[in-house]
């Protein structure tokens, strides 16, 4: 058994599974519990925002592990095939979803969130809802890309 490959593969799969499973758990269990358990939607939004910001940091760590482990795998063991290229495209798309979430969607949502508790809430709510839908779609696209990368691993 090639223990070096097993170690690199283990880090790769751990990072990828952490990302995908974490997104699914937070989206399907944690956030609904936050919004269902707190009586004030503004308070629930603030808590959800904190959870998601911390989760984004973990995903950046996962991306670093994925980049390093994929690079090692390519350099040391893998031959370029259609399947490996498909995995790399899926990983690139996964990384792109994180960039979009971090640098485009999250800052705009953060800027609008305080306005939801003011008199301007009605004028801000449609834009917030649109950005929220984009954020959910981006997260689901990332989960799909992660599952594809996992399949081709």
* Main sheet specs: none
How far the N terminus sits from the C terminus, by CA atoms, comes to 18 Å
How much of the sequence lies in strands comes to under 5%
Shape category:
elongated
Whole-angstrom Rg = 18 Å
Find the count of extended strands (DSSP E, 2+ residues).
0
Helix-strand string: HHHH
Q: What is the helix content? A: over 70%
| Structure classification | mainly alpha
Low-confidence stretches: none
Which whole number gives the mean pLDDT?
95
Given the structure, what is the number of helices? 4
Description:
This protein is mainly alpha-helical. It has helices at residues 3-37, 41-76, 82-112, 121-151. Helix 1 (3-37) packs antiparallel against helix 4. The mean pLDDT is 95.
Q: Notable features of this structure?
A:
153 residues, mainly alpha, single chain
Secondary-structure topology with pairs:
Layout: H1 3-37, H2 41-76, H3 82-112, H4 121-151
Helix pairs in contact: 1-2, 1-4, 2-3, 3-4
